[in-house]
Amino acid sequence: MTILLISIGGILCGRQRMNIRILRRNNERKQLIVKELLPFFERNNHGVTTMQFKQYLDSRCKNGKYNPEMVKSVFDRMNEHVDIERGSKKISVDYLNEFSDAFIEVEEIYKRKQLEILSKKNMHTDQRYEFEDRYKEAKAIEKTNDHGIMEGSYLTVRVVEARNLKPMDNNNSSDPYAVVSIEDQKEETQFIESNLNPKWDETFKFEIRTGKHQLVILVLDRDLYAADDFQGKLTLDIMDFKDQMKVDKWFDLHSTNPHEPWQGEIRIEIQWIHSRIKFFEDLLHRLDQIVVDDNKQRNEVEKSLKELRAPFGFLEYLDYGHFEDNDVHRAKDAASGRLGPQLSHFEKKMAVRLDEMADNIGFRQPPWYRWLVILTLLYVFLTLCTCFAIPNFIDLTFSSLTMFMIEPLTLTKGSFRTLLLGVFISFFYDIIHLILRSGYYWNFELFYNDPEKSVCRFSLICAYLLLLVKFFQMFVMWKVSVDYDEVMRYKNRNKALDFEGESENFSRDSDSRRLENTVYNY
């Protein structure tokens, strides 16, 4: 029982330790700012005007001028508005604490932006290395046919939904389905009963041999006792998608008579891969441009942060960073002769296949991190329950560590995978332990009184459930480790956006959005 109480207390306290550390660090910085400014206010014990205070901040900067935008951003956050432009109002030493609070808040906003951009840049850099390897592989194995497209070229068509279809039945509705055909290949969706705005969300793959045929999509109304009624037609030239990027778009449906007005739209997601070499060349080119943009954004934020800190140069030496540029890690690994942080090719292929499987069963973007949190909570709970019968110190250790680390997720990718290895080892330890001791654990009546038997049997059942939960826990942890940089980027972006609504959303340009939509589903 003592062990259980200690574990519960450790878990509850551990989740707050990072926030406490940040608060302590910021309080130290606030005190140093106040200490630096206090002599100026003591020399002017009758108070100083805001203009005098600004001039004093200017004098503390190396170039003799404090960026006016930074001054305004800090003063605008103070509880009582101070008009720094007019500069006539006097402020007293009492404003120092308020000024330091506002300064740290603005600094935190820029630091969170900096972290978000660096995380995004690291993700794009890792993608660059990964796709460079796949580009080299494609150059080695790709063959083209007589029509100039690669052998094994395929067209992926996802029929998502339709809207405002023409009613065909007597009840002013219809039972629509879609038929997709190209190059003597045909597939059809399930029909949706009594719906003029059906949602199919079905994906089909077609082998493309010539690239000269059109993609035809027919929307029909299912009839039981007569021929199915025509509801609309869409014809697409697949050469319009030769850039090989995924396109998700609404298209107008048409009648068989081009002069007849029609109604209805259909949403199609389409991608044609006709040359992996060209595909990866284009991806690498786009990634190069995106990384350049990432570096530009990063430099702008770092410049703003430096300008903000200009009157207090000592703050740069007190900045505790915990997220490094992946290029720095690669340089260190290359210098030491170690392998870089890239995953093995086998793992990459497995991750891609897993995403495809999830996509086929309806998970467009599986919430892996959310599942990790839920499974970790179950892991901790079941571990505590098993301790009534089994002194499970190994699982107590790893479940507590996992709970401490996943929120906030502050580990490096390597440390996270080490934690995964620990959970993996504990899984096999539990199997061996239960096999060797199963006879003892199922004969509690020889060792315990009646009230204790039920508790022990409950704990043993929890131990078997724990094995099942831990299996899925390892699986999800592995997937999170594969997409670790993306998870970090997502978390840091949300933190920045949640910081009192002050952080702007760094939206990607259209090429970046299309690229991410492609690389995670290819």
From TrEMBL:
Q: Which SUPFAM superfamilies match?
A: C2 domain (Calcium/lipid-binding domain, CaLB) (SSF49562)
InterPro entries, alphabetically?
C2_dom, C2_domain_sf
| Superkingdom of source | Eukaryota
Q: Name one GO cellular component term.
A: membrane
Q: Where are the transmembrane segments?
A: 371-394, 414-436, 457-478
Q: Which UniProt keywords apply?
A: Calcium, Membrane, Metal-binding, Transmembrane, Transmembrane helix
Q: Which Pfam families match?
A: C2 (PF00168)
**Gene Ontology MF: a single term:** calcium ion binding
* Keyword field contains Repeat: no
Domain C2, first and last residues per copy: 135-251
The protein's matches in PANTHER family, at most eight in alphabetical order, are given as:
C2 DOMAIN-CONTAINING PROTEIN, MULTIPLE C2 AND TRANSMEMBRANE DOMAIN-CONTAINING PROTEIN
Instruction: Please identify the protein, giving its name as recorded.
Output: C2 domain-containing protein
Q: What is the lineage of its organism?
A: Eukaryota, Sar, Alveolata, Ciliophora, Intramacronucleata
